[in-house]
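Handout, tutorial session.
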Amino acid sequence: MLECIHPTYKAVDDQSVHILLPLAYDYQMEGLLHRCECFLISHNLPFLEKVWIADRYKLNRLLVLCLREMRPNSKVDLNGSRYYALSDRVKVLLLERLHGAAAPEEILEPPLDLEPYQRQSDVNFAAVRAKTGRLYYVNPFYMAAWSNVFEEKLCTTSSGIEEMFCPCTHEELKAFLMAIHPPQLRINETNIGPILMSACKMESPALLRKCANLLLSPHTQLSVFVRLSLLDRCFLHEMLPQCLQMVLRPENLIQMTQQTTYDCLSTRAKAAMMDRLGVLLDNPGLQTHHCSRCKVTNTCGAVTWMCPSCKTYSSDTTLMKNPNNVTTGTTTVTQGYGSGTVGGLMNRT
């Protein structure tokens, strides 16, 4: 548990989740409960096992998602030990869902506010002031665990800690406090900007890693240019090449240079874009090939191959690049599809 709540932020896995859940529930650790719930949502477990866990530890979001996945007339084991351990409330929800009732609406998470940090208390006994003047009361030792800036201030201060200044604006400090204190504000596409800026200014490696994981995830609903701008603005230049790996076509990179905020990028970011463009121009796609249908030689961005024997389609771009896969006169597939003459070449430009 300590490894997971310390800023080293050890990830929850399929072995630790069953140890962490009872501890987090008994000690009312909302942040750790939320992390366990997020892991269980994306982790494959038997249906009733997930429902029992959601019922036992009051994970309402997980319970709602399980009920939404459930379909009327689904086969559910009603004789197992997990079913008998469910509460009456969940049994009724399962029964109604089996008979075609609509799944309940998602239970909204409780709103986060900064009220505990707006008055001095035994826990939050030190004042931290943003550079815009706003004052919050925090626990300096908890802040030092997340921020190298505060850790250095604590180590160099010999007298009692009453008030500290931070290099962030009010909005950035607010985002930082909500992101590090339980239940830890969920980082998404709408709030990652101020959180990432505050993590850089406060020198928070753990929060930076959380933001970087979101920015570099292929499922994040942000354009590559926006991700690049955020990384560049926070001086995370070592992540620029990895971010630009998401650009697969030279014309898309050229379009990025036509953005209105392109001039705001640093020379380092523009150079990284140029390096990526050079790689894409060296290998822009498939080699030049001759289409047997339209009798035209071109360099399409993608080609779909069809085997006339088994009618199997393939978009494997290595078929033309690897000379071992091609024979003179007729094209023969030797990878993945066995041996057979390929005909019916079709282009997608």
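The second record follows below. Compare its token runs with those of the first.
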Amino acid sequence: MSKWSALLRGRCAYNPAIQVLSPTLYLISVPLQGLMGYKERRTRQWRYYTLTGSRLLSPVREPEKLHQWLELESFVNPSQEWHDARMTIEGDIVPAKVVNVFKDLLETSIKTRGLTNKVSVLESVGTAVRVAVETSEAQIEVKLVPTVELMNYWPKRARWPRLFRRWPSTERARCIKSFGFNLMASSNYHWLLSFSRAEQVLLSNIDEDGGCRRKCYRVVRQLKEDGWCPGSKPVITAFHLQTLLFWTCEKYPCTRDWKDFRGCVLRLVQKLHKCVSQHYLRHYFIRSHNLLKYSNTNELDEVAKKINHFLENPEL
């Protein structure tokens, strides 16, 4: 009871660099320095190199909808270290190479700071840098992702806000876009687009009209963590629920739509059930991308069953 009382009363402090994916799994973006004055430009179409710099006979696959290449020429005056062959190939800033340099620096820092008894680098698959951190309560896992922060620039592929939508207001949407976006080193060749700062601004003052949007989000998140999708690496994360909340706010923009707390929670749960059942949840800013595209379908179906059981008798 005390946990739920605190949940319903509390206000959360959000840091756009930190995503809480589960109670014991965090994702932290680590900002990279020395890349200023970004401008989106038309990049060359094909790449024929491997991560070691060898030549390929066929080109590297093109980036998916939420990814892109990143060229040094996209920045006005990148600092000299970015011309280092340890991080670039043929003018491209290569995520996998940047992560390798970052990992070496991280391991050195852990040793020189005397943190080897509290922080340890875990074995990783792909470009993820995973560390285990001992806290006073439990051990948590943190994914560290080198990130290029691009302020005051909005990517052309993020066609937002959409026409004839009343949430958020035009003035607020203009403010949100001024915070720009990030490019995260989360794959070998391509950079992942992230809108964490924009999402933070959307969440802040989301209930300035006296609604219960954030309270509904917190309750559904707790239900997910307690019963529907527990564990350290859930198939449905807090980011999925946050995206679902944004879509629901856009569909129901009026103050009166967010006055009935019980009804609003059930509406959000019903929408979650639909997305999980269909294995489809659109990214809020780049709506052509399905956030559940690569999720385990068996796990999604199991979560859908649990949510359906809840909806049959939510009073229990």
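Points raised in discussion: Residues 95-112 form the longest helix (18 residues).
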